[in-house]
User: Fold this.
Amino acid sequence: MRDDLGVELDERDFAKQPLSVAELRELFAGRDPRDFLNPKSPAFKARSLTGKQLTPDQALSLMAEEPNLIKRPLLIAGREIVAGFDRDRMRAAVKA
Assistant:
């Protein structure tokens, strides 16, 4: 992915360094954190969740507790956040 985008990336392994609720709240400020839940993850399915049944605060707490609930990769370029493998959006975000 890094070579594909032609930029240097700072990486964070959520399994080794989970994001706190405060970090997630700051990251998703002005956005609905439920949009960043990964409904395809086994962790999501095991909890029998549907994203919109959760409040935004509940979604943040669950993501902090179980990082596998977060869509990945997350690419953050300025105020743009791209979740999942959308190479075209990722390229556009890093070139903006």
